[in-house]
Amino acid sequence: MKNLLISLGFIFLMTYTLSAQNQAENKNAPVISFDKKLLDNSNNPVWEYGTIFKDSNGDSYFAFKNTGKEPLILSEVRSSCGCTVPKWPREPILPGKSDTIKVKYSTNRLGIINKTITVFSNASNNPIVLRIAGNVVERPAETMPMNQNSAAAPMNK
Fold it and tell me: What's the predicted TM-score (pTM) here?
């Protein structure tokens, strides 16, 4: 029994050591880097809509660059909600090249926007979580300027 436990422990240790060696960091791996203007305090890319009106343009753009030494492949870009639809490049992004992930938020809902978009890739900094934030409000009622000649004045008959 003691020999069995020692053998199992040895096999576990060897398996763990070999898997750790296989996961060693690839120094040439692609790296996905976003514009510093988009980064929040946690270094996560955020598109800040601010306050926008209902049914207005909900497009946001996350420009990125492959700062690694191998081609970057975005395998999947997944949003946290059906009201947020991402579009991403399907072809490899070569080292030093840039592209954009477009996210369309449906602004037909009133209230706070706080949605996440997770980017899965072959980058060494995989996955990346993008965020969109803001507040959708009702458009104020249009006030029509009063024509000076249309003021309520008695009409002579």
Answer: 0.70
